[in-house]
Design goal:
The protein is α/β, with parallel strands linked by helices and 466 residues long. It is built from 20 helices and 14 strands. Helix 13 crosses helix 15, helix 18 crosses helix 19 and helix 19 packs across helix 20.
């Protein structure tokens, strides 16, 4: 043996002796994880009176949670671990043993501490972080579950009763659903209700508003991004909405605003139930039920070529239409009562009631913004009115601005054809709404009862200055 090898061997022997001395116990096993040596400290810890009781036995039969066999199998050390033995916990370290050729011939384990008291500060910090992580995961899981059920669909009209029955029937299947309805009618509420009544109710419900996301980010939003997919991308993988909704339901709100390029990729997911994250060549399989919703006329968009015909037919398997509020005026009373209770509960103020005249005023309006517009009106009235009762006089100042202006082109353009008259009325209404909101698009869209993307389209179609 050369001098250097002799020094190295002596150093290892010396280090082992020191390590054994300062540790609370030590054990060694052969290549088959059978115990070949155990020191007296470890025997005392385990309650072993004679080493002959354990020598030659599989280490797992003596120490059930030992991972020395795993160290031999992988050849990799486990430098720090907490191992349970009966009701006690040991802080341990495990190292592989190699022969001169580098082959694993066994492993050695050391008990660094026979009590966790030494690690209490570290364990306390770990437990605190674990609690925070668990709490955050619970909140995230709750956020990805539907908050509403069919019971939350408020109304007593025949249209609403029929809608509830249709929702229950649709919930029994897993085919795609296409929800049609004007803005503010409660399309997402219906989507959540269908999910809550289905066999997927315990799985995630994930909603994404297509119109609210820039076209350049939609693909990443839907399918996720692989690590380092592009300059500036996160080094960790980012999950998309399809992956988050796996096993559950994905609501694609305002599907009519989806760009054509992404429509083709969505069609593939619907057909194959698989996708590729941005920047990845790996195909991921998913089990997701798609519910699409739109306030657009998809048939018209198909005819004009801005929406794929094949995607329309794939989505339109189970169509359901949400009726506008003006077609179910019987629902204004139960909806108003529900909203007033919700507003009082959230604000902590006394519950306000609405009298007969106030209700008659609400029922006389066409509500282009539907249920959302009704809720906003009642909330404004509750917050700004000190009276415990909402009358017609107290509600009227907070009613949405009417679009039936004195100079309405309905009367002045009587010689125009019906389509031209309708276009003239629409152009005038949009101009007036923009004027009243100082050119601000979002409040103008709310006043008109349409989405912001629809307003931009109509401004372009009517060649209005926006």
């Amino acid at each position: 043996m050369s001098e250097s090898n002799s020094i190295k061997s002596s150093m290892f022997d010396s280090l082992f002796d020191i390590f054994e001395e300062i540790c609370e116990g030590a054990i060694s096993v052969d290549e088959k994880a059978r115990i070949v040596w155990i020191n007296s400290k470890y025997m005392d810890l385990l309650g072993i009176r004679d080493e002959d009781e354990v020598l030659g036995r599989d280490v797992a039969s003596v120490i059930p949670e030992s991972l020395l066999a795993h160290v031999i199998e992988t050849g990799r050390p486990i430098l720090l671990d907490i191992m349970r033995f009966d009701s006690r916990h040991f802080v341990v370290s495990r190292l592989p043993l190699h022969d001169e050729e580098g082959a694993v011939i066994g492993a050695v384990g050391f008990v660094l501490y026979n009590s966790l008291d030494y690690l209490k500060p570290l364990i306390s910090k770990f437990e605190m972080l674990q609690q925070r992580l668990t709490s955050a995961e619970a909140k995230l899981a709750a956020a990805r579950h539907a908050r509403y059920s069919i019971a939350n669909i408020i109304g007593r009209s025949q249209q609403i009763n029929d809608l509830k029955e249709q929702a229950r029937a649709i919930a029994r299947h897993s085919s795609p659903v296409l929800i049609l309805g004007e803005t503010g009618t409660g399309k997402e509420l219906l989507a959540q209700s269908i999910h809550s009544a289905s066999v997927r109710r315990e799985a995630p419900f994930v909603a994404v508003n297509v119109a609210a996301i820039p076209d350049s980010l939609l693909e990443a939003e839907f399918f996720g991004v692989s690590p380092g997919a592009y300059t500036g991308a996160d080094k960790r993988a980012s999950k998309g909405k399809f992956a988050l909704a796996d096993g559950g339901t994905l609501l694609l709100d305002e599907i009519g605003d989806m760009p054509l390029q992404l429509q083709a990729k969505l069609l593939r997911v619907l057909e194959e139930q698989e996708f590729e994250p941005v920047g990845s060549n790996t195909v991921q399989r998913v089990d997701v039920r798609i519910i699409a919703a739109t306030s657009r006329d998809l048939k018209a968009k198909v005819r004009e070529g801005s929406f794929r015909r094949d995607l329309y037919y794939r989505l339109n398997v189970l169509p359901v239409a949400v009726p506008p509020l003006r077609e179910r005026l019987d629902d204004i009373k139960p909806l108003s009562e529900y909203f007033l209770e919700t507003i009082a509960s959230r604000s902590g103020e006394a519950l306000k009631v609405i009298d007969r005249d106030g209700l008659a005023l609400l029922e006389s309006f066409s509500w282009p913004g539907n249920v959302r517009e009704l809720k906003n009106t009642l909330e404004r009235a509750c917050l700004m009115c000190n009276s415990p009762s909402l009358t017609a006089d107290t509600i009227r100042p907070f009613m949405p601005a009417t679009l039936d202006f004195p100079d309405s082109p309905i009367t002045t353009d009587a010689g125009l054809s019906l389509p031209a008259r309708i276009a003239s009325v629409e152009r005038h209404a949009i101009s007036r709404a923009l004027e009243m909101t100082g050119g601000k698009k979002a409040p103008a869209a709310r006043m008109l009862g349409i989405s912001r993307s629809q307003l931009y389209d109509k401004i372009r179609d009517h060649q209005l200055s926006g």
